[in-house]
């Protein structure tokens, strides 16, 4: 049995923390982080708001991410070995792929592949505080959270709901 579990949600909402805990606890479990598919900085557009558009689907190479998921689907054992995951014989019939990211449910070719979808949220103030304590390769310019990050989260969440993408909401 192959299971693909989406761990989606807002920036700094606990997705990676949950994913890493599940990865340690579940046998035959691999992970694909959406953050690993950002395009190079020079390919990220500047929006009308004056900020680099990191929080939009176009900033990600989603075709490459889908190709990676397809590689897992074609051979979960081979994929696991290639990513340093030892396959446990007693659980070898079940393979789990965790997809972790902030725009997982906005890319239609992936939406129907999930066995289960989760969406993590935290209150606005908590999210803003967490974001302010993180060190990013490309530091956040002043005003980015309120001027771009939060509005984009709200936009994509509304689109996800309008498109009928069902997930389990957790806060």
Q: What does this molecule look like?
A:
The model has no long low-confidence stretch (mean pLDDT 91). It is built from 6 helices and 5 strands, in the order E-H-E-H-H-E-H-E-H-H-E. A 5-stranded parallel sheet has the order 2-3-1-4-5, with helices on both faces. The chain is globular, with a radius of gyration of 17 Å. Helix 2 (62-74) packs across helix 3. It is 37% helix and 16% strand. The protein is of the alpha/beta class. The protein has helices spanning 15-25, 62-74, 76-82, 108-111, 124-133, 144-162; strands at residues 2-9, 29-33, 95-101, 116-120, 168-170. It has one domain (2-170): P-loop containing nucleotide triphosphate hydrolases (Rossmann fold), CATH 3.40.50.
Task: Write a concise synopsis of the structure shown.
With 171 residues, this protein is of the alpha/beta class. The chain has 6 helices and 5 strands; from the N terminus they run βαβααβαβααβ.
Q: How do the strands of the widest beta sheet line up side by side?
A: 2-3-1-4-5
* Backbone structural class: alpha/beta
Mean pLDDT: 91
User: What is the number of helices?
Assistant: 6
Give the CA-based shape.
Answer: globular
Q: Would you state the CATH class?
A: Alpha Beta
Supply the number of structural domains.
1
Q: What's the number of extended β-strand segments? A: 5
CATH superfamily: P-loop containing nucleotide triphosphate hydrolases
Distance linking N and C termini: 29 Å
Q: Name the assembly state.
A: single chain
GO biological process, one term: NAD+ metabolic process
Protein name: NMRK2 isoform 5
GO molecular function: ATP binding; metal ion binding; nicotinate riboside kinase activity; ribosylnicotinamide kinase activity
Catalytic activity: beta-D-ribosylnicotinate + ATP = nicotinate beta-D-ribonucleotide + ADP + H(+); beta-nicotinamide D-riboside + ATP = beta-nicotinamide D-ribonucleotide + ADP + H(+)
